[in-house]
Write a structure and sequence with these properties.
Layout lengths: L14 H9 L5 H19 L2 E4 L1 H16 L11 E5 L26 H8 L3 E6 L33 H8 L6 E4 L6 H7 L2 E4 L20 E5 L2 H11 L29 E5 L9 H16 L3 E5 L4 H19 L1 H6 L6 H11 L3 H23 L4 E5 L20 H6 L5 H6 L3 E8 L5 E8 L4 H13 L12
Parallel strand pairs: 2-3, 7-8, 7-9
Antiparallel strand pairs: 1-3, 4-6, 5-6, 5-10, 9-11, 10-11
Helix pairs in contact: 2-3, 5-6, 7-15, 9-11, 9-12
């Protein structure tokens, strides 16, 4: 079932492999783009990753990238590599639907900071990607643009809300994609589609020009093939932005330089509360095998108790509910029928939460973060968990518009990712195996605030000794 990467031609190259090959003159940006476009033409009719595909503009950009290299001009770290992005990052003059009926024709007048930084680094923008409506579900369902399908097994969900980003990177339609992560929406499609997804520390990356979902929990970040890809991508997009006053002024290190492969003495905690509740044995087995790979590299692993996680889960859900309801208040009054059933129900629920509980969730965030760090990171460098507790569910099993009884299975998808949004901690998901149906399984690693370099170093070390991230869906 796991086809060799070589069957995709140049499109099988990771983002950093492709950028470096272009810089060395081994391949052209135009040839790489055509390989990706051929994959899209052959397979996106079944996957449904794209909302808008800008073929002509991408070809013009690739030709310009090749002329720039031939002329000896300075090249950016992502020169000539094709990307596409979740349809919630605004580009002036281009429609940004946010996966919704309400914004089907919305044309912003500003360009997101992250897109500007990717442009400056030389990346080629292929278009916009399918996503959950207003980024508000963890499965990838979309009643307005059609559901996105898992390229490993089409009836199964992709994870959300960055569904097209995860599916497209896995299918080798492009080398990298922006997702967003408010409760796991980068890490979930990463684990479910078998790619790498990074949520940086809260405020590490500017959110200017990105559709908001939750003021307290939104994060911008990449879905890519490898930890090295994530490191280079983050170096490009991270850093303070005057247009986003919440963005951190913390210096941006060279994340890629930190990928030494040496994790000797790295201390990893495995919290026993929450993350393994109802976990499938195949997931636990893959997780334990992944820990074995890290231990063989010199890391130490210890099981710890972290009772603060119960409060983390409750408070995190409360924040996103209330803030999402506030953002959508006018549309909910004026255009309630333009929302899918599950989203309108979720938003209405946010209006019923008392204000004092919302304030309590905000006020407790700092103390709970300090407590969790003492429990799980005081003596340790990283926390390790499965990204998803169970085997990947089907689209039908998590379709709550069709059957509200699917609600518990729907919400369980994001159980292991949501805590790190409330805590604001950096977390990455990398592929660590497959279940008995050929669907991917993910390993989640999290660290202290602004410790992305350490998180990435461990993820990269794991990928040096495994090939899960190089396996390709059986699309043909």
């Amino acid at each position: 079932m796991n086809a060799p990467a070589g069957t995709a031609g140049l499109a099988a190259l990771s983002m950093t492999e492709a950028a470096d090959a272009i810089a060395r003159g081994e391949i052209t940006a135009a040839a790489l783009l055509e390989s990706c476009l051929a994959r899209i033409e052959a397979h996106d009719g079944r996957v449904n990753a794209f909302i808008r595909l800008d073929r002509d503009a991408a070809r013009e950009a690739a030709a310009a990238a090749d002329r720039a290299r031939a002329a000896g001009r300075p090249l950016g770290p992502l020169h000539g590599v094709p990307m596409a992005h979740k349809d919630m990052y605004y580009r002036a003059g281009k429609v940004s639907t946010c996966g919704s009926r309400i914004r089907r024709d919305f044309v912003p007048q500003v360009t997101a900071t992250v897109l500007e930084r990717l442009d400056a680094a030389g990346a080629i923008d292929l278009g916009t990607l399918n996503m959950a409506e207003f980024a508000q579900n963890p499965t990838g369902h979309n009643a307005h643009f059609g559901h996105c399908h898992n390229p490993w097994n089409l009836p199964y969900c992709t994870g959300g809300s960055s569904s097209g980003s995860g599916a497209g990177v896995a299918a080798r339609f492009f080398t990298a994609a922006l997702g967003s992560d408010t409760g796991g929406s980068i890490r979930l499609p990463a684990t479910i589609c078998g790619v790498t997804g990074l949520k940086a520390t809260q405020t590490r990356v500017s959110r200017f020009g990105a559709m908001p979902l939750s003021f307290s929990a939104d994060n911008v970040g990449p879905l890519v093939r490898t930890a090295r890809d994530a490191a280079r991508f983050l170096r490009v997009v991270a850093g303070h932005d005057p247009r986003d006053p919440t963005s951190a002024r913390e210096p941006v290190p060279d994340y890629e330089a930190a990928l030494t492969g040496d994790i000797r003495g790295l201390r990893i905690a495995v919290p026993q509360e929450w993350f393994f509740d109802g976990a499938d044995s195949v997931v636990v087995d893959a997780f334990e095998a992944a820990l074995g790979v890290l231990k063989a590299r010199g890391a130490t692993v210890e099981r710890v108790s972290a009772p603060s996680l119960r409060a983390v889960a409750a408070y995190g859900a409360l924040l996103s509910r209330v803030e999402g309801a506030a953002i959508h208040a006018n549309w909910m009054r004026e255009r309630p029928g333009d929302y899918s059933i599950h989203l309108s129900a979720r938003l209405y629920g946010g209006y019923a939460i008392p204000g004092h509980l919302y304030v309590e969730a905000l006020a407790r965030r700092g103390p709970i973060l300090r407590r969790f760090c003492a429990e799980a990171l005081g003596r340790f460098d990283l926390v390790a968990t499965p990204t998803l507790r169970t085997r990947v569910p089907t689209l039908a099993e998590t379709d709550i518009d069709a059957d509200p009884r699917n609600w518990s299975r729907f919400m369980a998808v994001s159980a292991n990712t949501r805590p790190f949004n409330y805590l604001g901690l950096p977390a990455i998901s990398v592929p660590c195996g497959f279940d008995d149906r050929g669907l991917p399984i993910g390993l989640q690693l999290a660290g202290r605030p602004f410790a992305e370099a350490r998180v990435l170093r461990a993820a990269d070390a794991f990928q040096r000794d495994t090939d899960w991230h190089r396996r390709m869906p059986p699309l043909g």
